Amino acid sequence: MDINLSKIKKILIVRLSSLGDILLTTPLLRSIKQNFPQISTDFLLREEYSDLLILNPNVNKIYNFPVSKFEKQDQFNEQISQNYDLVIDLQNNIRSRKLVNILRRPSVKFNKQNLNKFLLVNFKINRLKKFPQIPERYAETVPGLELDDKGLEFYTNRQPDTEFSGGKNYIGLCPGAKHFTKRWLKEYYIELGRKLEDAGYTVCLFGGLEDIEICSEICKSLGTPLSFCNYNDILQTASNMKMCKAIFSNDSGLMHLAAALKLPVIAFFGSTVKEFGFFPYKTKNIVLENKNLKCRPCTHIGRKNCPKKHFKCIKELTPDSAFYSLKDLLTV
Q1: Is 186 exposed, middle or buried (0-12, 13-18, 19+ CB in 10 A)?
Q2: What distance in Å separates the CA atoms of residue 199 and residue 280, rounded to the nearest whole number?
Q3: How, if at all, do strands 86-89 and 10-14 pair?
Q4: Calculated CA dihedral for residues 18, 23, 25, 30, nearest 10 degrees
Q5: Quick one: how far is CA 258 from the chain centroid?
Q6: Alpha-carbon dihedral of residues 148, 9, 102, 136, nearest 10 degrees?
Q7: Do strands 10-14 and 40-46 pair parallel, antiparallel, or not at all (unpaired)?
Q8: pTM
Q9: Which of 239, 245, 247, 277 pairs with 19 at a CA distance of 20 to 30 A?
Q10: Helix 234-241 to helix 253-260 angle, to the nearest 10 degrees?
Q11: What are the backbone angles phi and psi of residue 149, rounded to the nearest 5°?
Q12: Which domains does the chain have, with CATH numbers?
């Protein structure tokens, strides 16, 4: 499809989920606004993720993905009336394609590289080595659009919680992840937390509703940690996270939030690999992964258990290696 952005006035971007994937669209949103200020960009996502973009100055209007037929019809009627010049489908699944088809407007869709991901996971044929990271691949969906070097962005209007005090060195731990094979071990986070406390750092725990239990268990095993795990209040999480000198995280949405806040990140990669394009973007980072396993990657999204039963991809990423990586990260 031939696209001339200089002649376009209205764009709808479709990316329904999830936390990290939506944050990874922010360089694209900024690039459209900076290079083509005449374009008004709307965004369609699931309601629980709307706070990710609610304060973003590069988004004109947010549409929440409807949960009922009545909401669906009302929203579609409004979207159709907008008469978009271009719809950019960055989700590119059955649901998003149905939505785009209803709008009946010129559209482009993100190439998810499903065949190459299948070959890498199942046959270890790696044709993704030279592929750019996901934000750049999102931008390739619109020919001629180039990104700047500013990375991801996130806006919050909240103040940090009152537990923070001056003069302390805060380090964040994000122990949650949707899939088991993406989670560094709880006992490893506890051991790392103790090492950090012995070194004079104050440990801060971050997570959402599904992470409350693990954050609580880790806190009980440490000396004087601070827990900022909450009920998916991403605006407050971001404000608190900005108080940290660095973040330890699994391959998860909070890893991308830390990158959007320009924080140094140490990320644990178990069943997934950097070639999929989802490692920390445009921020100081160290990815800890076991490169000696022939079974990696065993998935591109995560699994409920290790298919080989040994779980070496995570178990061999030791708390010692994580702790010493912090010094390397902060002195870069």
Answers
A1: middle
A2: 26
A3: parallel
A4: 150
A5: 9
A6: -10
A7: parallel
A8: 0.95
A9: 245
A10: 60
A11: -105, 20
A12: 5-140 (3.40.50.2000), 169-331 (3.40.50.2000)
8 Å CB contact between 181 and 303: yes
Question: Could you tell me the two tokens for 303?
Answer: 């699994």
Instruction: Tell me which residue has tokens 């290079």.
Output: 35
CA atoms within 13 A on the CB side of 317: 31
Per-residue tokens: 92: 């590119």
Q: Copy the structure tokens of residue 102.
A: 């209803």
Question: DSSP character for 304?
Answer: S
Helix axes 186-198, 319-331, angle to 10 degrees: 50
Tens place of pLDDT per residue across the chain (332 aa)? 778 899 999 999 999 999 999 999 999 999 999 999 999 999 999 999 999 999 999 999 999 887 665 556 566 667 667 789 999 999 999 989 988 888 889 999 999 999 999 999 999 999 999 999 999 999 999 988 999 999 999 999 999 999 998 778 999 999 999 999 999 999 999 999 999 999 999 999 999 999 999 999 999 999 999 999 999 999 999 999 999 999 999 999 999 999 999 999 999 999 999 999 999 999 999 999 999 999 999 999 999 999 999 999 999 999 999 999 999 999 86
**How far is Cα of residue 150 from the mean position of the Cα atoms in its chain?**
16
Tokens of 231: 């009920």
The amino acid that residue 158 corresponds to is: R
